[in-house]
């Protein structure tokens, strides 16, 4: 091996080692919580209760997605949820929102809610595992609620309904 080849290999190894030990690189490397092997077994605690004013007897158990990472993960790779379970996405600001069903194994209903937790748009029975189309709120929304498909119809949820939830 020539000195030049040795130098090139040493530089490449140094770059790889710097990347692997760099604390900023953690966002680019798989972790135990987000590795491909664990996604298929992903379970959520659903530890927040909520209900709609129109049907206060139906209590939904929700997982709250507050961080950018939690919102990006959403219900991806979750294989099953009960009729009374879902995920509430909380955003910092009220803006038009867009969702897709990539890597989402279950059919969902999505409800977009404004800053006062009032439903501004409902999209029912989204097909799983679809990268296209995007599902848009059409109106500014600070929250989005994903429920098991059929929940909107079963609970007679409508535009204007208010969600009550403790954060």
> Given the structure, what is the number of helices?
4
Residue-averaged pLDDT: 86
Count of the separate structural domains: 2
- CATH superfamily heading of the largest domain: Protein of unknown function DUF192
Structural class: alpha+beta
Q: Strand share of the residues?
A: 25-35%
- Would you list the SSEs in sequence order as H and E? HHEEHEEEEEEHE
User: What is the CATH architecture term of the largest domain?
Assistant: Sandwich
Shape: elongated
Q: Regarding CATH, which class of the largest domain? A: Mainly Beta
What's the helical proportion of residues? 10-25%
Q: What is the fold named in CATH at topology level of the largest domain?
A: Jelly Rolls
Uncertain runs: 23-40
- Side by side, the strands of the main sheet go 6-5-8-3-2-1-9
Number of strands: 9
Textual characterization of the structure:
There is one protein chain. The strands form 2 sheets. The protein has a 7-stranded mixed β-sheet with strand order 6-5-8-3-2-1-9. Helices cover 20% and strands 34% of the residues. It starts with a helix and ends with a strand. About 11% of the residues have low confidence. The protein is α+β, with helices and mostly antiparallel strands and 167 residues long. It is elongated, with a radius of gyration of 21 Å. It folds into 2 domains: 30 residues; 129 residues, Protein of unknown function DUF192 (Jelly Rolls). Strand 1 and strand 2 form a beta hairpin. InterPro entries: DUF192 (IPR003795), Saro_0823-like_sf (IPR038695). This is ACR.
């Amino acid at each position: 091996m020539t000195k030049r080849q040795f130098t090139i290999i040493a530089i490449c190894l140094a770059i790889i080692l710097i990347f692997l030990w760099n604390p900023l690189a953690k966002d680019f490397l798989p972790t135990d919580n987000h590795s491909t092997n664990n996604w298929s077994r992903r379970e959520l605690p659903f530890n927040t209760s909520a209900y709609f004013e129109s049907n206060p007897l139906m209590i939904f158990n929700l997982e709250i997605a507050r961080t950018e990472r939690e919102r990006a993960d959403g219900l991806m790779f979750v294989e099953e949820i009960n009729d009374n379970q879902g995920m509430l996405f909380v955003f910092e600001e009220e803006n038009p929102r867009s969702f897709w069903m990539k890597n989402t194994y279950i059919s969902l209903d999505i409800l977009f809610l404004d800053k006062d937790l009032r439903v501004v748009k409902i999209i029912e029975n989204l097909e799983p595992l679809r990268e296209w189309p995007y599902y848009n709120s059409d109106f500014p929304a600070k929250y989005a609620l994903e429920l098991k498909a059929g929940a909107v119809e079963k609970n007679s949820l409508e535009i204007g309904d208010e969600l009550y939830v403790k954060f």
